[in-house]
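2024-03-11 09:14:02 INFO worker-7 job=invfold-0412 stage=load source=structure_tokens
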């Protein structure tokens, strides 16, 4: 029962924290797993990490003493410390882009009961001349549907806090907490801190704009199947690099062509980038039509080799990048001799000698 006796309430909170420590840790792990699953299934949200913690017992008491005790006792309002520690269990969702924060909030609001919301980004942006930590804090608990599930029943009464930040906001928060005596330092140092905070904010904005511009570049490079077929057919008629106006191979056209031949394979952007550069380095000026021609002409033979290789080497698999390497080698052995390792090339040539017709 709530009282105005701080020492008594403090003892009760310590007893609660000590006796429920394992349950709190289990609840934290369960909430992290649930949040991760929800965001994965939501799709189109770039999440860097999800982590959590159970707040230290004495830190909870210290927070209550500094933030709530004076007002409650001055108004003669009985209290229990636990009721005022909404972040006893805390989760942090770190996403890549500013607009992902809103997507995370929308997803979580559909599956949790939102008790309170603090938008620190809006607070900062509505304060003239102010910079600082930005992010979204959600005070939540399981909704009624989730509480009814057996696996969550023992955690049904726990409230917890979810902080949603971008990578840049998270980095600034860590650094901001390391700056000492921020309220007492000279105005010149304060201006430098504000400048630094503004640079972090600018980085967040630029990161989002780079993503937007990259999408625009991909759309700009989007080539119709008809045009790609036309360029490929021209290469087939004339084995030279084709007409001067033919677009050179880049990561975006590589991805479109590769995904046509390997529909179920996920080509990671950083690998596509590096692999495309390797192809262009070995055959400078290669066009997208030429690359598509090499794939179209040689994919069947390369896949027959893959089947033979994997049946003889049960622990080894040839992934799509490796298949593409074999197609390029078949298309232009002189230019792409080094695209295969010596052992891979010898194995392939041995197979070709026995099976090539």
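2024-03-11 09:14:09 INFO worker-7 stage=emit residues=357
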């Amino acid at each position: 029962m709530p009282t105005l006796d701080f020492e008594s309430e403090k003892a009760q909170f310590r007893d609660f924290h000590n006796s429920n420590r394992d349950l709190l840790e289990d609840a934290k792990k369960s909430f992290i797993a649930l949040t991760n699953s929800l965001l994965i299934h939501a799709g189109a949200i770039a999440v860097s990490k999800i982590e959590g913690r159970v707040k230290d017992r004495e830190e909870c008491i210290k927070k209550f003493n500094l933030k709530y005790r004076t007002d409650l006792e001055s108004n003669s309002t009985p209290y229990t410390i636990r009721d005022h520690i909404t972040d006893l269990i805390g989760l942090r969702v770190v996403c890549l882009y500013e607009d992902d924060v809103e997507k995370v909030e929308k997803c979580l609001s559909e599956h949790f009961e939102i008790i309170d919301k603090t938008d620190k980004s809006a607070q900062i942006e509505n304060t003239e001349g102010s910079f600082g930590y930005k992010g979204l804090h959600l005070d939540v608990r399981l909704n009624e549907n989730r509480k009814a599930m057996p696996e969550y029943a023992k955690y049904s009464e726990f409230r917890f806090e979810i902080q949603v930040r971008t990578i840049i906001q998270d980095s600034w928060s860590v650094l901001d907490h390391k700056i000492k005596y921020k309220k007492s330092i000279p105005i010149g140092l304060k201006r430098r801190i504000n400048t630094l905070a503004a640079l972090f904010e600018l980085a967040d904005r630029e990161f989002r704009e780079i993503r937007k511009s990259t999408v625009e570049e991909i759309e700009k490079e989007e080539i119709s199947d008809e045009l790609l077929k036309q360029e490929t057919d021209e290469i087939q008629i004339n084995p030279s690099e084709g007409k001067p106006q033919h677009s050179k191979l880049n990561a975006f056209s590589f991805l479109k062509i590769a995904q046509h031949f390997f529909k179920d394979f996920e080509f990671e952007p950083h690998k596509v980038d590096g692999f495309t550069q390797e192809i262009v380095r070995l055959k400078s000026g290669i066009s997208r039509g030429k690359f598509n021609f090499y794939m179209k002409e040689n994919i069947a033979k390369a896949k027959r080799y893959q089947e033979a290789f994997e049946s003889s080497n049960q622990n080894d698999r040839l992934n799509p990048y490796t298949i593409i390497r074999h197609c390029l080698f078949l298309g232009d052995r002189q230019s792409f001799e080094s695209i295969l390792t010596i052992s891979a090339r010898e194995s392939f040539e041995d197979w070709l000698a026995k099976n090539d017709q």
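2024-03-11 09:14:09 INFO worker-7 stage=report msg="Residues 222-355 form one domain."
2024-03-11 09:14:10 INFO worker-7 job finished
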